[in-house]
Amino acid sequence: MWRKTLTTLRGIIRSIGPTFLGFLRSFVENKGLLWIFVLGISGWSTVSILVLLKHRYETDSTTIGVSTAYSRWINTFPSIGICITKYRAFNEFKAMMRDHFQEEFEYSFTKMIYEFAFTNPNTLFTRAPTKNTSYPYDFDILEIRRKMFPTNCSACFEEVYFRGELVANCEEIFKFHVTEMGYCFLANNLLDYDSIDEMPLRYSSLDNNRNLRLILRYSVFYKYEMYVNSPEDLPFFNSLTYTISNDSTTYAFNVEEIHNHEGVIDEPISQRKCKFPSETSVKGFPYSFSACMSIIRSEFEMTACNCSLFNPEDRNDSLYCGLHKADCLIKAGVTNRVKEYVGSNTVCLPSCVEQQISLGRN
Questions:
Q1: Closest residue by Cα to residue 109 from 314, 184, 117, 148
Q2: Alpha carbon distance 178, 311 (integer Å)
Q3: Where in the cell (predicted)?
Q4: Of 10, 78, 207, 216, which sits with the fewest C-beta atoms within 10 Å of its C-beta?
């Protein structure tokens, strides 16, 4: 019985050998079957690797994500400031002074009043005025400004167009403010809005015309300077200015904004190296680099002369530096001192939402 079984197994083995070799020979010769086999093995290997990676990711992985902040091109216009500056209408100003005070003043004194009415930290007298007791030396410059300068944008703007459409009322866009640089009309500024999303000058990728067009009224008393800055910033003594002439002029700007993850504000200021507009020390005055510089300049002026040309923390008229303090302001040289102080000390951090603005090709 055992011998019979062994003989049968030997027969089966002898028959399997030629059969298996024949199958291999047929499989190799038939290339379609070969590729199916290769692709099957490859697919199985790929699935096995993916399953292994998924398992390791879920059980033993470290993920680093760049989700705290990101940069992208924005659809919010920068803040535009149109500020009043001195022109060449001295004779008209002299006539206004005569009509207002019912008195004729000497040429030199009237010219001094005219220049001081437009003064800002960058346009102080090159020399102090000489006191003449026969004249009201301590003129109320703020009263002169209120009489001579407009506070409604319609007095300065003839027409305003945004995205090619006429804005019916310029006050929908431009709000009046007294700033460090004098009387200004500001558009898209956080002084007037709780958030950037509420601002009127916004556009989308569907808008082909993304321009703001201004037609300004001519005045014999003053001309205009333009400031273009981030919505939390204000015109200040170290700002770039752009000339506005009677000729048609086009300015093109490239604007990029930083959008922060909502959790960034919870990080320590020392770590993020910037401040949000809400992290201000002056109520109603959003934090910005320019606001920080203005506050420091005002503090320097108060220390040196017990007055200020612009005090963000206290708008009391009694703190304004009138003509009688001009000599002190000139000697103090506050503007240069502030620039040196801020440049050598990390006292004014940038804003965390500051737009990066560069002048493009006109």
A1: 117
A2: 11
A3: Membrane
A4: 10
Q: Same domain for 35 and 115?
A: no
| Measured distance CA(223)–CA(118) in Å, rounded | 11
Is 220 in the same domain as 326?
A: yes
Q: In this predicted model, what pLDDT tens digit does every residue of 129-183 receive, in sequence order?
A: 555 544 455 578 888 888 888 999 999 999 999 988 999 999 999 999 999 999 9
User: Residue 325: CB partners within 8 Å, gap ≥ 6?
Assistant: 305, 306, 307
Asked if 296 and 334 sit in the same domain, the reply is yes
What pLDDT digit, counting tens, does each position of 233-257 carry? Answer: 999 999 999 988 878 888 888 888 7
CA dist., res. 254 & res. 357, Å (int): 6
Phi, psi of 18 (to 5 degrees): -65, -35
pLDDT value for 258: 77
Cβ atoms of 298 and 313 closer than 8 Å: yes
Q: Is residue 28 part of a domain?
A: yes
